[in-house]
């Protein structure tokens, strides 16, 4: 079953068996995790396709419009604000913090290192447990760092840091000349119509609870304003809003951040923890390997609340799970299982194949089989106007390539150069080399030479070919 919602984008297109499997998963999660309530939703291709909830109150359950505190999912919102500054040319990810926020004492750390938690900063601010105490106890940014704030060499490892995102929030305020909360509202919440995502709770919202570990008893958790730590974990949101935000993290939105920039956020930025090769971190985005899929999103927790948002770009699926318990429900696993249930039971139906719109016959001259040494590769022209290079047998270095305009501005000629988009050759240049009569001689890929025949004397093979030939 699905929860009712006023969201006009909701379409209940999932099969009944899939819906029951999703409901079963959250029912088990709420019961075994002993959470007062749990609400979840799944969206696909920007449309809410399922939502459900379980509650300990008979006859009353939250829906996709009920607010929960989302904790560190707030960091992803803050990272989007920073990436907007980068895209506008107001900062570079390689800039030292000191350039934009002088006097912190950790000014040598870069914006990129703060976004990716690779600056080596301590995990928590000094003093009392900051999530259960008022932010008024830390009135200044310096109160979030304290003495000995750097624990590890910068850039060497991933070490999660809440104070690092307080610093990034301060950078946003300095460069925008406004509060973090107002910049967030103006630049993300309004354009994406996230009307139920707020800095302070707005009814209807869930109350935060602690459940006794050895008894079926509950205790209300205090709600604290985090003050200068707000960019690390302050926000309240709903399953419906987070599905919309997750769709943005998959597709981008020109009003907020381009598809290329959100893709950059989802790319791994730091080495994985030596003890956990199944997870990683991008730029304000957590990454996880689950069942052969790479998920991108973020988890969140504050006393009384657990939250998780996962996305899978290839399937176009967003899953959200929210609970109002300090601990208990395995919220990250629940959200991942919801996504996998839909992807496995109802895999995406691919778009119909279509030919290239602007076909260039001159490019057929370079399509087909090539050799790097004795390794056979295929080079295919694809409908988006790019090239795909892939090994014809065994493992090899495959990449996709996009055309770059020639110096004369001609972006159509077969003599254009090509830039690698992924894999080993990401960013590298593929060039078509020709003989004096204009015929194709070979391909130059980042200085590697690909020829039509393996080590033929007639080919332009660096180092030459043994005169006695094959034997």
UniProtKB/TrEMBL annotation:
Residues 27-340 form the Beta-lactamase-related domain. It holds the Pfam family Beta-lactamase. Residues 361-452 form the DUF7586 domain. This is Beta-lactamase family protein. The lineage of its organism: Bacteria, Bacillati, Actinomycetota, Actinomycetes, Kitasatosporales.
């Amino acid at each position: 079953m699905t929860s009712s919602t006023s969201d006009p984008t909701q379409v209940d297109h999932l099969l009944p068996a899939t819906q029951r499997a999703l409901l079963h998963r959250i029912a088990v999660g709420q019961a075994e995790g002993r959470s007062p309530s749990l609400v979840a939703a799944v969206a696909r291709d920007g449309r809410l396709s399922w939502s459900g909830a379980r509650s300990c109150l008979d006859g009353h359950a939250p829906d996709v419009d009920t607010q929960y505190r989302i904790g560190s999912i707030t960091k992803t919102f803050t990272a989007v604000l920073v990436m907007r500054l980068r895209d506008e040319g107001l900062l570079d990810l390689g800039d030292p913090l000191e350039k934009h926020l002088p006097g912190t004492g950790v000014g040598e750390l870069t914006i990129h290192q703060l976004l990716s938690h690779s600056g080596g900063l301590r995990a928590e601010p000094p003093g009392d447990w900051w999530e259960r105490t008022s932010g008024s106890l830390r009135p200044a940014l310096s109160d979030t760092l304290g003495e000995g704030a750097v624990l590890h060499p910068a850039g060497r490892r991933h070490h999660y840091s809440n104070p690092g995102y307080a610093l990034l929030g301060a950078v946003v305020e300095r460069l925008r000349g406004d509060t973090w909360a107002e910049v967030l509202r103006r630049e993300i919440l309004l354009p994406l119509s996230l009307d139920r995502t707020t800095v302070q709770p707005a009814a209807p919202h869930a109350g935060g609870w602690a459940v006794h570990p050895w008894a079926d008893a509950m205790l209300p958790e205090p709600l604290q304003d985090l003050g200068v730590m707000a960019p690390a974990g302050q926000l309240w949101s709903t399953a419906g809003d987070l599905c919309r935000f997750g769709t943005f993290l998959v597709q981008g939105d020109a009003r907020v951040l381009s598809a290329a920039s959100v893709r950059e956020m989802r790319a791994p930025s730091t080495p994985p923890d030596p003890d956990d090769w199944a997870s990683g971190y991008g730029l304000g985005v957590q990454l996880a390997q689950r069942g052969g899929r790479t998920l991108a999103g973020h988890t969140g927790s504050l006393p009384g609340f657990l939250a998780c948002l996962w996305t899978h770009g290839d399937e176009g699926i967003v899953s959200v799970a929210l609970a109002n318990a300090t601990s208990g429900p395995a919220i990250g696993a629940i959200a991942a299982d919801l996504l996998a249930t839909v992807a496995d039971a109802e895999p995406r139906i691919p778009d119909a194949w279509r030919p290239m719109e602007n076909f260039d016959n001159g490019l057929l001259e370079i399509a087909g089989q090539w050799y790097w040494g004795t390794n056979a590769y295929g080079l295919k022209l694809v409908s988006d106007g790019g090239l795909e290079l892939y090994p014809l047998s065994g493992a090899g270095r495959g990449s996709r390539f996009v055309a770059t305009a020639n110096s004369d501005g001609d972006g159509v000629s077969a003599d254009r150069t090509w830039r690698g988009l992924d894999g080993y050759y990401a960013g590298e240049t593929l060039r078509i080399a020709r003989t004096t009569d204009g015929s194709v001689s070979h391909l130059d890929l980042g200085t590697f030479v690909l020829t039509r025949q393996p080590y033929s004397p007639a080919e332009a093979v660096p180092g030459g070919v043994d005169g006695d030939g094959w034997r």
